Amino acid sequence: MFLDFGQVPAFLIACVVVILTPGVDAFLLLRTSMRSGTRAGLWALGGIHAASFVQVGVVISGLGVVLARYPVVLVALRWVGAAYLLWLALSITRGLLRRPEVDEPLEAVADRPFRRGFLTNITNPKMLLFSLAFLPQFIGAGQPTAQLAMLAVVFLGLAALWELLIVVAASRVAGGLHRPGVTTALDAVCAAVFLTMSVGLVL
User: Fold this and answer.
1) pLDDT tens by residue, 26-62
2) How far is residue 86's CA from residue 178's CA, in Å, rounded to a whole number?
3) pLDDT of 175
4) Which of 7, 35, 126, 196 could make an S-S bridge to 140, C-beta 3.0–4.6 Å?
5) What span, in angstroms and rounded, lies between the C-alpha atoms of 169 and 185?
6) Low pLDDT (below 50) residues in the chain
7) Under DSSP, is residue 179 helix (H, G, I), strand (E, B) or coil?
8) 141 by DSSP, 3-state: which?
């Protein structure tokens, strides 16, 4: 059997649970879209999923298993990811402490959203480890490489749809919420989340 579609129903249920659990990507998209609009949010979403395709490709090709055999590589990647999340948290905090007299224009707030989305995801080893642990459970009787590719496409497609909803919803409500108190609270929450996740990566 080339593809085992009997695994799809259980896989879809598992996907929904995983995708709806908030993570770094969701908070990054929420902040980017509310502060900088739909276009910046879409660029960030594109960066996130470009990194996801790289990581899933590593798993499908078998390189993920090889990397998992060398803990030092994963440890190094964890520290890089933690350092980047810490940098994001400190950057947001610095902006909060600066307290400009006038709100920054949207273009100034959106600092290379594609690159930020890509780096946030590609430096997070949890996505790679998750793919290594999660996807193979649903291979079933299918041809392993083809089944993994199908599962990856389904998972990333569902994740992209959910995150697209986050971008659209956040950017639409941003107009009514774009007040100093609201944006400050949003930045503070995101900084706290990024800092917490940074610590969590190295513990």
Assistant:
1) 999 998 998 888 999 999 999 999 999 998 888 888 7
2) 25
3) 66
4) 7
5) 18
6) 101, 105-108
7) coil
8) coil
Enter the tokens of residue 104: 């920054």
Cα(191)–Cα(185) distance, rounded to whole angstroms? 10
DSSP state of 136: G
- Alpha helix ranges (H) inside the chain: 8-19, 24-36, 38-61, 63-68, 71-98, 106-109, 113-122, 125-134, 144-177, 180-202
d(CA 201, CA 203): 6
**Confidence (pLDDT) at 108:** 46
For residues 80 and 76, what is the distance between their CA atoms, to the nearest angstrom?
Answer: 6
Alpha-carbon distances of 189 from 30, 167, 184, 194, rounded to whole Å: 11, 17, 9, 9
Other beta carbons less than 10 A from residue 5's beta carbon: 12
**From the CB of residue 117, how many other CB atoms can be counted at a distance below 10 Å?**
29
How many C-beta atoms lie closer than 10 Å to residue 74's C-beta? 15
At CB < 8 A and 24+ separation, what contacts does 100-105 make?
103/178, 103/180, 103/183
Which value, in Å, is the radius of gyration of the alpha carbons in the chain?
18
pLDDT at 106: 47
DSSP 203: -
| Model pTM score | 0.81
Question: Other CB atoms closer than 10 Å to residue 193's CB: what's the count?
Answer: 22
Q: How many residues does the chain have?
A: 203
